[in-house]
Design goal:
Helix content: 25-40%
CATH architecture of one domain: Alpha-Beta Complex
Structural class: alpha+beta
CATH topology of one domain: Flavocytochrome C3, Chain A, domain 1
CATH class of one domain: Alpha Beta
Radius of gyration: 25 Å
Shape: elongated
Largest sheet: 8 strands, mixed
Number of strands: 18
CATH superfamily of one domain: Succinate dehydrogenase/fumarate reductase flavoprotein, catalytic domain
Strand content: 15-25%
Bound molecules: flavin-adenine dinucleotide
Number of helices: 18
Length: 513
Amino acid sequence: MKRIMTRAAGAGVTRRGLLQGTGAALSLAALGATPSRAFAERRWDLVIIGGGTAGLPAAIEAAARGARVLVIDKAPQLGGTLHVSTGQMSGAGTVFQARAGIEDSAEAHYADAMRINRNTGDPAITRLWTQHAGETLNWLAEHGFDIGEDQPVYGQAHEPYETRRYLWAPEGGRAILEVLLRLLEPHVAAGRVELMLSTGAVELIKTRQGRVTGVVVEDEDGRRQDVQSAEVLLAAGGCAANPRMYEDLHGVPLYCQAAWPYSQGQGLMLGLGAGGQLHGGDRYLGLFGAVMADTWTPAGLDFSLGLYADSRPPWELYVNVHGQRFIREDEASVHERELALDDQPGHRFWVVFDEATLANAPSLVPGWSEARLRERFEDHPMLFSAPTLASLALRAGIHPRGLEASVAEYNARREAGAADPLGREYRPVSLDQGPYYAIQCQGWTLVSFAGLMVDDSLRVLDADGQPIPGLTAAGEILGAGATSGKGYVGGALVTPALAFGRLLGARLAAGSA
Ligand SMILES: Cc1cc2nc3c(=O)[nH]c(=O)nc-3n(C[C@H](O)[C@H](O)[C@H](O)COP(=O)(O)OP(=O)(O)OC[C@H]3O[C@@H](n4cnc5c(N)ncnc54)[C@H](O)[C@@H]3O)c2cc1C
């Protein structure tokens, strides 16, 4: 078995080594150890499948209470999605709020989260994460995590909270990871936490009575081995890097590839295989308005448009494939716009405008000059221009008569001073000066909404709603829908992953899950 951290080997591991997974490999080589045999005889108090956002705090808390912990990760380095995540978090009663003079409570955070997602989050799980969010952020702060003086804020890109409880570090998720690795390091050095990198969990081991007692792991060379443990924590993330599974579980294609590449949904399958059940795929909701790099799915995200009415009131029209408008373009609620896009064919729309708008409106792409945007119309597969609306529609794949009718109605009502049928109030210009332009925008997401069902102690539930003994879960494996609902509540994935990891680490070490 490669890259097993033995007690002695741990002493020489650096933080950089932990990040890159090289420390473990080098130490083993130096020892000339034959870890497989010794390893097979070991029995851990806690095996954590996935050394990422939820798994690392679990390991830290369990080890701090004297548990012997094994962290298995399929990737060659620890950290999981924290390597790519924006790392925005939210919590009430934080030191960051205190220094800004903001009063807040977990109860208010809970109510606000459920307001934003219109009560589509799981109430028990939402209550649990909002109750423990503040202490989790304070724990990070105590160990060196910091943010800019201008924070916390109400919101950023998602529907804002009613108070300032939302924050992130300039380095994003990596700033969180830095703190976690610093806290993990002494436990690894002391042999309380052992690491098994580049090794995937492929099956859970169960007794006849149904208790999970371990996991079968497979290394990069396909060699398998059993690992025995009193408790197993599934923290292997979601499936937002697995297009086929994503579509199966959500009924929606994975339009954009932006997740941690190891988010293949293997943890979900392990849970299912052990008798667990999945739910929450129907809570899928796409983010509004990004331009993909290519026409196929999943595509890479190329750039985003500045479609926030409060920072840039819209000059353009938004139409679906039928050429119909579907939302007032000056709608301020991010959540409202995401819900409207959810009903559109292919979860896509086109931002349509004319030559006068391109020449005179504030930049549609934050930070781009007019010349730069014009240039992209020459070669980008999602940007179209044509002398007439009908030819624009044909090039872009929009219904031509629908588009012509929508633009004509918008112009006529605007010029007559009549009310807009969708309630739009900001109507600076008519769209009547060719050439015309269309930018295709795709609803997209970074996370999987489907996840394993758990009880309010985070024990994985079987088909009868009974906890599977020995098996708990934390992180995106619970499904974004559990903590964020059908919507994007700020920080509703990173914060619960960290908070639940900590909770379970402490509880499982005490043997009371
Ligand atoms: C680009 C991006 C930006 C985001 N921004 C935000 C944000 O600002 N705020 C927010 O709240 N959420 C955000 N999210 C979501 C959030 O970051 C994730 O939901 C969260 O980090 C997931 O934590 P996790 O512990 O469940 O998974 P991870 O952190 O991904 O950890 C899972 C670990 O399991 C490992 N693994 C997978 N399969 C196996 C296996 N079979 N055996 C062993 N190990 C395995 C993986 O390698 C990984 O290390 C973002 C997501 C992305 C992709």
